[in-house]
Specification:
Layout lengths: L2 H18 L3 H14 L2 E6 L2 H4 L17 H7 L1 E9 L6 H21 L4 E3 L3 H9 L3 E8 L8 H9 L2 E5 L23 H13 L2 E3 L5 H10 L5 E2 L16 H9 L3 E4 L3 H4 L1 H9 L1 H15 L3 H17 L9 H14 L4 E3 L19 H9 L4 H30 L1
Parallel strand pairs: 1-2, 2-4, 3-4, 4-5, 5-6, 7-8, 8-9
Helix pairs in contact: 2-16, 7-8, 13-14
């Protein structure tokens, strides 16, 4: 056999080998290239509570928590929604004031780190930030109780950059029922429907995470724009009222919406949820310790909750939940709702993270895991952020049309 023919045969055989088997190293290289060339958007992070602390610098790598600029860059995060969150029990002018303080804290961080962050209010601005090598900072209001029953406050939040509002948090408000409270309005009240319509006009995405099932369906009927769940997982895999049923995800998809998978262990793992329900004294013990360590400091409460939960896992009192559960929920949501209707909503700095997904540096693992499951690169890009940007763009389009009709 000639040297040329031998070389050709080796090349052909090598080609068959590479096509038939892909090694872990090959996938890692491919995953890294795909991940860092994709626009990755996380629709829910509670880091905002930490921004209220003058000593916390988002630009410095922090030994605690999940989010800061160095770790966002290491994990390839291109856009992040900072959550404006006040407990449901705080209402009226105090809730409005505290929400405005948090919005201001986000905006000040952008001013403080102009080389790394840019405030974005449109899908195009998120893409532009990416082209400039910056991270797009977006704002989401987590709980309609913060508008204090006043559409004027909603308009103020929108003017300051808020681009979604979660209609409820853990408790009902005066116009919408929460998934974790007793029904008081049979879903969405007439004023609640006015809120949805005004959000459509403003280009603010309606977020149905936290709402009761009836509220969800009322929202779908009232909204002219696609809506999304900023941080909810699949009820078929973990039976928690905060998660979405298959039927809800299909209905959301039919209206062009997206379910963004939450990483909280209590929404990912049925085993973990069963253990919590079987041993309520554990959560009472954690709550008492949080109160002792943190008092009214909400940023401390959120971080200590995660730390104390891990201590309970280490003691064998709660089951260990691995990050792979995130992939199970993504895969289920894709099978039920379609790949155009699934995204990422971590709940970093606001929930108990699974092992192996402690902070934003671990995000490339999601891309690699999806490649291993056979997802195409185009579909992975959708899940990582493109689906979210489509909903933002659609909300903007509907807003333009509604405002044009009023002229």
């Amino acid at each position: 056999m000639s040297r040329a023919l031998f070389t050709a045969c080796v090349c052909i055989l090598a080609g068959f080998s590479l096509a038939g088997t892909v090694t872990a190293d090959d996938i890692s290289v491919r995953a890294r290239k795909l991940h860092f060339s994709s626009l990755i958007v996380d629709t829910h992070d509670d880091t905002t509570q930490r921004l209220l602390d003058p000593s916390f610098d988002l630009g410095r790598r922090d030994p605690s928590g999940s989010i800061d600029i160095p770790r966002m860059r290491e994990g390839g995060l291109g856009g992040i929604f900072f959550s404006i969150w006040i407990p449901s029990k705080v209402t009226g002018p105090e809730a409005v004031k505290r929400a405005l303080d948090q919005i201001d804290a986000v905006r000040r961080q952008v001013l403080r780190h102009p080389s790394d962050l840019v405030l974005a209010t449109t899908a195009a601005q998120v893409r532009e930030a990416r082209q400039q090598g910056k991270i797009a900072a977006l704002i989401g209001v987590e709980g309609g109780h913060m508008i204090a029953g006043d559409l004027g406050v909603l308009r103020t939040f929108a003017a300051l950059g808020a681009r979604y509002m979660t209609l409820t948090h853990s408790g009902n408000n005066d116009w919408a029922d929460s998934s974790t409270d007793k029904p008081a309005h049979n879903g969405l009240s007439d004023f609640g429907k006015d809120v949805v319509r005004e959000m459509n006009r403003l280009g603010v995405v309606v977020d149905i995470s936290h709402v009761a099932d009836k509220t969800f369906y009322d929202v779908l009927a009232a909204s002219k724009a696609p809506v999304f769940a900023s941080h909810s997982s699949c009820r078929a895999l973990c039976d928690h009222p905060r998660n979405m049923t298959d039927e809800m995800m299909q209905a959301l998809a039919a209206k062009g919406g997206v379910v963004h998978i939450n990483y909280h262990v209590g929404f990912l793992s049925q085993e973990f949820r069963d253990a919590e329900r079987a041993h309520p004294e554990i959560n009472k013990q954690i709550a008492a310790e949080i109160d002792k360590r943190c008092g009214e400091n909400e940023a401390c409460q959120l971080l200590e909750g995660d730390r104390l939960t891990r201590e309970m896992v280490a003691q064998g009192k709660l089951p260990r939940v691995g990050w792979e559960k995130i992939i199970e929920h993504i895969d289920h949501a894709v099978k039920v709702a379609g790949v155009d209707h699934v995204g990422l909503g971590s709940d970093f700095d606001g929930a108990n993270m699974p092992y192996g997904m402690e902070d934003a540096t671990h995000l490339p693992q999601i891309t690699e895991a999806l490649l291993r499951k056979g997802y195409s690169e185009a579909d992975i890009r959708k899940i990582l952020g493109e689906n979210t940007l489509r909903v933002l763009a659609e909300a903007e389009r509907v807003s333009r049309e509604l405002n044009a009709e009023k002229k």
